[in-house]
Amino acid sequence: MSASVSTLKKAFQDGLAIPADTDFENLTYRGIPQWDSIAHLQLVMEIENNFDVMLPTEDVIDLSSFQKAREILAKHGVTLEA
């Protein structure tokens, strides 16, 4: 599956309730007040819905940054394009 990086950014925006001008490349779990454990689950749901994947528990736990989300999606066959 091929998708755009902007789709992932939108999933982060919706899941974490953050603005579009966020520095996504440096975004990390608990690096901002919005990304707490509750928002983490919302983010997982947004990623799963937007990319039609089901993340196993280990990926949910490993999802610790925007960059890690890209790696996890690649592992599930999702290619992100600019």
Approximately how much beta-strand content do the residues carry? 5-15%
Question: C-alpha Rg, in Å?
Answer: 11 Å
Order of helices and strands: EHHHHE
| H/I helix tally | 4
Helix content: 40-55%
Poorly predicted spans: none
CATH classification class = Mainly Alpha
Mean pLDDT: 96
State the separation between the terminal residues, measured CA to CA. 14 Å
List the strand order in the largest sheet.
1-2
CATH superfamily: ACP-like
Shape descriptor reads: globular
Number of strands: 2
Report on this model:
The protein has 82 residues and is mainly alpha-helical. It has one domain: Orthogonal Bundle (Non-ribosomal Peptide Synthetase Peptidyl Carrier Protein, Chain A), CATH 1.10.1200. The chain is built from 4 helices and 2 strands. The chain has a two-stranded parallel sheet. Helix 1 (5-16) runs antiparallel to helix 2 (37-51).
